Amino acid sequence: MVQQRSGEKSNNEAAGESEARLKSLSHSAATIPFSGIRRFFDIASKMEDVVSLGVGEPDFATPWSVRESAIYSLERGQTTYTSNLGLPELRREISKHLERLYKVSYDPEKEVLVTVGVSEGLDLAARAILDPGDEVLIPEPCYVSYKPCVSLAGGIPVSVPTYAEKKFLLDKNDLASRTTSKTKAILIGYPSNPTGAVMPKDKLEDLVSFACERGLYIISDEIYDRLVYEGEHTCVASLPGAYERTITLNGFSKSYAMTGWRIGYACAAPSIITLMMKIHSYTMLCAPITGQKAAIEALRHGDSAVADMVEQYNQRRRLIVDQLNAIGLKCHMPEGAFYAFPNITSTGLSSEEFAEQLLMKERVAVAPGTAFGAGGEGHVRCSYATGIERIEEALRRMGRFVESLRE
Amino acid sequence: MAVDTLEILNILARDARTTAETIAQMVGCSVSEVTEIIKHCEDSGIIKRYMTVVDWEKAGVERVIAFIDVNVRPARDVGFDAIALRIARYPQVQSVWLVSGGSDLRLAVEAPNLRELANFVAEKIATIDGVTGTVTHFLLRRYKEEQVLFVDTDTDNRLIVAP
Prior knowledge:
The complex is a heterodimer.
Chain A: H1 2-6, H2 9-18, H3 27-31, H4 38-44, E1 51-52, H5 64-75, H6 88-102, E2 112-115, H7 117-129, E3 135-140, H8 146-152, E4 156-161, H9 172-176, E5 183-189, H10 201-214, E6 217-221, E7 246-251, E8 264-267, H11 270-283, H12 289-301, H13 303-326, E9 339-340, H14 351-362, E10 364-365, E11 367-368, E12 380-383, H15 388-406
Parallel strand pairs in A: 1-10, 3-4, 3-5, 5-6, 6-7
Antiparallel strand pairs in A: 2-8, 7-8, 9-12, 11-12
Helix pairs in contact in A: 5-12, 6-12, 7-8, 7-11, 13-15
Chain B: H1 2-14, H2 20-27, H3 31-43, E1 64-72, H4 81-88, E2 93-98, E3 105-111, H5 114-125, E4 131-138, E5 144-145, E6 148-149
Antiparallel strand pairs in B: 1-3, 1-4, 2-3, 5-6
């Protein structure tokens, strides 16, 4: 541009010489890998007639009463910031909700922070707990952002493998062998995305006592807590010894089909919430008010909508697992969330190859298990947050695909 | 058993075409069990009928529908039942309900055009012994019926692959 405008070559050269090279971007940001799901999204979004089992969000719209209350709030002109912690009314409802479901009591004044989804809660938790070099134990396969969040906070994620033969449950011995003097926290997410595993109470008690013995924090992402089909969800913080060291992360995305609203919450002892709130106040200020208003309605009147969705997810869960097994992909029965995590090793393909070839040949999108950590190799994640007819169509195509590999 | 039956009824109420094979997988029991439960529900009248929700207007069919409030002098011994059933047997009558409030019976009546509907009310309903008055409300537009919205809804616009 300079050259065109001035027309004097010498001027331009002079400017070029005096200008220093632009410094490089953040090394820590640049070295964090892209999510393994991204590549498939890029390919699949350019294709037509794709049946997707790759979606990690509900296919239901947010219940109407919740949407309506947000509209009402907008009509009333409620478009301001809220307090950093979130609307007091919402924090009271969250506190009552956790007390009612799990008999765990958090003071809405000091121990509840409304966040922009669990994603922000996770980031805040990591930053509030970690100093550079601190290690965090993370069972794998796990949600895609756990390890990057820890890294971005200066910590070091340490993978703890979980195994299909043990229903992807976290074993205390596997934790112990990876614990060092640098270990600061354990980061878990049950019910699990991608495996659908639900940690039974006694296993969680083991985990809490392990953390107690070593003075570790527990970050517990419980976003799928209401989507449990067998047994019950145990809120980690409700277990003896857990309260003071545990950050409970939860939100409205999955249970109430509110992913796009970006409303979550973090509950913990006042000392922890104070730090998280401080960071939140500088980086986010507050969660969006319309979403907070909607969340109040969800907690007050959302139970029947949740029950209805859970019943439908449960039916799809049984259907998809049955059909996956029927086409020869061994699949354990997931107890929670909305994912089946079949073993695809019988096909002789890696997870990436399986997902890519299935997409190319039959236009069915699934997420490769490796997107959720090395421990996911040999599996793919199939979301059943989609209608029965779509699931059946996807499975017909997958059956054909698996059959073609045998020939 | 009781829980299974209700769950199966819910599935069929949502989509009556769901096959017994699919239902069996959805509720986690055998196909023969599902078939048996459905047969029992059909035989005992729990399942009345399988039907389709049609947007007739979209199909290009002109039909007039009216809701008619009927005041009735109840008869000794049989109350409203005798008149309600006399009315209900006409094929033009889609539904008959006994309701609280200003009138006694509320009907949904269907006819090919306005004149035929008016004639039907004047000749067949108003003249029944014991009917003391009628008020007719014509249906102008459907917004929702049988849990189905009569507007075009958005297609699934979620990201195809998401974490």
